[in-house]
Design brief:
heterodimer, A: mainly alpha, 65% helix, B: alpha/beta, six-stranded mixed β-sheet, four-stranded antiparallel β-sheet, 10 helices, 31% strand
């Protein structure tokens, strides 16, 4: 290996990358944007559930029961005030009780309670509110349901310490930074093939293996550096930094392998963008499962980026056991080797 | 004199279409050999095989005694290649382009400024190549091919479509390189350029060498020299007359012309390489 040649190649690639205004702007701009978005998003999760009441009179036990269930009650001055509170998302549900609610309840008649929900409240939540109100009504009329519940939280009980959305999004953003780098690197290589500058490089004493070493170092270096900047600035390295750094490094290797594949398939910027965006969309799918739990099932494990996202997410947000981290990282390394081999083989065929 | 290039039965086909068909030739050290032929004749494929960009499917070639397939790296360290298509880093300056390749060749004493001055680009070294004209880019390509002081210089259509100044600069550099002792392998379909520069020319057509000799010998062998005169006829109109030189009856014809005719204009004619190419291959160089 001639490291002087490899170094010359790396310096040239970095210089050309930043002289391409589109990718330079997108790279730096996107990184700044991700960081800004992270800090704009709330750093805490408001766990309080607020509901609204319009009522003449309610016994103190009623509101005490509600507060005991973790609900905060807002008393509206009128029905229209209650509706406004629902529409403005000040409360998650509004209940308008009739003037003679308690008497009707005591007299075994059926009082009419109007319930207002915002349009985006899931049906399950609506049913829960109704059930809660019914249960409280039973209590008020002296007929509490005779059931005892014992509560057990499986895993860490996160009540009072819920993970803010921005931290749940951090693995997604980190993966996005890594994967976006594939577009830049693929475009750089594809541009060299198109302009036939690779032909000129390969007529010098530079060997193909040195060319790929140089390109790999450039790709891994740039992707890793960007992800590292993001994670350091957002404080993501405070938990299990070694595991996170290793995962990001392996993620950068994966991005480089994919970039080689993209460069061998696309013949110009548009081709690279078309294939690249498709690849990015697939690769970020596992991250959606973190932001929207329950939306992604086990098939996500077939997506190469799953082990990167899972490791980074668990290390940043929950803490991951060393055994699980090693398993994930070894699988990720194997995926990297496969993608790098595929990418280098395809690209080598194209340029030689 | 030893041979810098020995090509023996070189053959290459693209998808079963024969581009170069069992060609053999030698180029002596310090010689300028021009490959003349129309587009698609096999010139560039020959260059690619001789420079290690393509492996011959049949035959072999040695450059400075080294086999191009087995010793590609050692050969490539000693050759310079100026490609047919401009392949410079457009977003880098001329100096950055040259210095990059100097590092790849390990040419530590390379002076980019002097190299640019040699090809008439002094003062433009810090400008990005994307701002250059076609002629300037081609001159820069030639400068890049000289970075490692090559023993053999391959120039693939170096002056095609260039302005006269750029063409002349490149021709001068080629002659200077020959003076330095370099062997030059030039492909072109500019017969005037080939005639001016070459020690020998090879006509290549449809992948086959149709003729290979010095321009002078080719003209002697295939061409004709003639005297063309315009004489005044009795009715006052001009009549053109041609006397073929180097023939037994030439002397008598010349005497008749100057004694029996009223010569108005007279000039000599010599066959061009293109005439000879057409005569040998039955088609022109432009195609």
């Amino acid at each position: 290996m001639n490291w002087t040649s490899i170094r010359a190649l790396i310096e040239k690639d970095v210089m050309l990358f930043f002289r391409n205004r589109f990718f330079a702007l997108i790279t730096i701009g996107a990184l700044i944007m991700y960081i800004v978005i992270y800090f704009i998003m709330p750093s805490e999760v408001d766990e309080t559930l607020r509901i609204g009441f319009f009522v003449d009179e309610l016994p103190a036990e009623f509101t005490q029961e509600l507060e005991a269930e973790g609900l905060e009650v807002y008393y509206a001055d009128s029905v229209s005030d209650l509706k406004d509170a629902v529409l403005n998302a000040e409360v998650t549900a509004g209940f308008a009780f009739p003037p003679d609610f308690m008497n009707s309840l005591a007299g075994q008649s059926a009082p009419q309670v109007e319930v207002f929900f915002p349009s985006d409240l899931p049906q399950e939540a609506k049913d829960l509110y109704i059930l809660l109100l019914k249960e409280l009504s039973f209590t008020l009329v002296g007929q509490p349901l005779n059931i005892e519940f014992s509560e057990e939280v499986l895993g860490d009980d996160l009540v009072g310490q819920q993970i803010p959305l921005r931290d749940r999004m951090l693995p997604l953003i980190a993966v996005f930074v890594l994967m976006f780098e594939t577009l830049g690197l693929a475009n750089l290589i594809s541009g060299e093939i198109e302009a036939r500058t690779l032909q000129a490089l390969l007529i010098t004493p530079l060997r193909v293996r040195e060319l790929f070493t140089g390109k790999s170092i450039t790709g891994v270096g740039m992707a890793f550096l960007q992800a590292l900047i993001l994670i350091v600035i957002t404080g993501g390295l405070s938990n299990q930094p070694v595991i996170i750094l290793l995962a990001l490094f392996l993620g950068a290797l994966l991005a480089t392998g994919i970039a080689f594949l993209l460069a061998s398939s696309g013949s110009d910027l548009l081709g690279i963008l078309a294939w690249g965006i498709l690849a990015i969309l697939i690769l970020i799918l596992p991250a959606l499962g973190i932001i929207f739990p329950g939306t992604i099932s086990n098939w996500a494990k077939l997506i190469p980026s799953y082990y990167l996202i899972d490791t980074v997410n668990r290390a940043i947000n929950y803490g991951i056991s060393n055994q699980q981290a090693v398993t994930n990282l070894v699988i990720l390394l194997l995926i990297d080797v496969v993608f790098l081999w595929l990418g280098i083989t395809a690209l080598r065929r194209k340029i030689t | 004199m030893t041979n810098a290039i020995i090509a023996d039965q070189l053959t290459y086909a693209y998808n079963q279409v024969l581009a170069v068909d069992h060609i053999s030739f030698q180029v002596a050290e310090g010689e300028i050999l021009s490959f003349l032929g129309p587009n698609g004749a096999g010139k560039t494929t020959t260059v690619k095989m001789l420079t290690g960009q393509l492996h011959p499917q049949e035959g072999e070639a040695t450059l400075m005694g080294l086999d191009i397939v087995r010793d590609t790296e050692r050969v490539q360290a000693q050759i310079g290649v100026c490609f047919e298509i401009t392949n410079l880093y457009e977003q880098m300056s001329a100096e950055e382009n040259l210095n990059l390749f100097a590092r790849l060749f390990g040419a530590k004493d390379f002076d980019a400024e002097a190299a640019l001055k040699r090809i008439g680009l002094d003062g433009r070294g810090k400008d990005r190549v994307e701002t250059y004209s076609k002629g300037m880019k081609q001159r820069l390509m030639v400068a890049r091919s000289l970075i490692n002081k090559p023993s053999i210089l391959f120039l693939d259509e170096p002056t095609e479509g260039l302005d006269p100044v750029s063409s002349e600069t490149i021709r001068n550099v080629i002659l200077e390189e020959r003076e330095r002792g370099a062997t030059v392998f030039l492909t072109t379909h500019d017969m005037v350029e080939a005639d001016k520069l070459s020690d020998r020319v090879a006509f290549i057509d449809q992948g086959v060498i149709a003729a290979l000799d010095t321009p002078h010998n080719l003209k002697q062998q295939y061409g004709k020299r003639a005297i063309r005169a315009q004489v005044s006829s009795p009715d006052g109109s001009l009549v053109s007359k041609e006397i073929i030189l180097d023939q037994p009856e030439t002397a008598e014809s010349m005497r008749d012309l100057f004694t029996g005719e009223q010569v108005v204009t007279i000039h000599s004619e010599e066959a061009t390489l293109e005439d000879i190419f057409i005569q040998i291959t039955g088609r022109g160089l432009a195609g």
